[in-house]
């Protein structure tokens, strides 16, 4: 990859990737060079048994040229860094400092993601959430040894994370999440331009996430990609069998993800509709969605554990399409269950309103009426209800006598 980038060039903003097979994992960074004809790149091996987070920013820091087992880099890297004063020619070159720009957007746009991801892998480290990504020096470790073995289910939860249970929990803000605490913070509004120092936290799962995937690699064996189109918190991770030297067979529900028109056969659109509907009453709907995700994905896990890769591959397209239909129906289920401020099933319904905290913040208690008006109304209603009950009871008693 690096050699091709040097030979044929690389255009656009820098990119940070993870490359893995059944034996090793590398973090790969690439950016254009100063001739517009080649590229600068570097790669660092992730230690065995470690996990890392690469959140749209360079994380490779000091490169040891004497450690060829763990570091690779382009032939022009040192010359370019030296020519522009990004490295003084002594000591180890810091790739992120020389060829990156640190945080973009706000001071924690990537740093909080790194902190959260590494903290989910290894909570015992008690990492500081306020360090951010500093341009001048490293703040967080390149990788960590997880406290517990990493499972597919753990990775699903990580992809769907909104920093729940932390001071930065996007589902816990009384005002910003609206009456039903959605974690979604739509960016780019013109009103935001009036606040020079304002920003929202950036979660791992976001409303503009286009997909998430979990690639499981084995040595001398087939591989599996669990693919979740759209925002992971509103999507499902469906399996794709990937065999060496073979193209993946067509899976119709994964072929369409154009945002210009809804397609009811697309898993991307099924997930997108679920995620958008959840915004209406997130703090209630998320429980139903998580339950459905667990049930469907648990069946997938059972299939992957009990059936052969060949058998799974044969039925994969039809199987994933059936999941797509089930998930497209999920948003109708949510709309039906939580319509008009209630849960409606059969003849019973219960109100699901905002929290007390949100009502207070919204000024519910400041309605323009005096306490005396409220008291008189309630007293009058109570007296009227008593009269109505008396009339009804008398009518029922009379009807019983006639029977």
TrEMBL record:
<comment type="similarity">
    <text>Belongs to the peptidase C69 family. Secernin subfamily.</text>
</comment>
<dbReference type="GO" id="GO:0016805">
    <property type="term" value="F:dipeptidase activity"/>
</dbReference>
<dbReference type="InterPro" id="IPR005322">
    <property type="entry name" value="Peptidase_C69"/>
</dbReference>
<dbReference type="GO" id="GO:0070004">
    <property type="term" value="F:cysteine-type exopeptidase activity"/>
</dbReference>
<dbReference type="GO" id="GO:0006508">
    <property type="term" value="P:proteolysis"/>
</dbReference>
<protein>
    <recommendedName>
        <fullName>Dipeptidase</fullName>
    </recommendedName>
</protein>
<dbReference type="Pfam" id="PF03577">
    <property type="entry name" value="Peptidase_C69"/>
</dbReference>
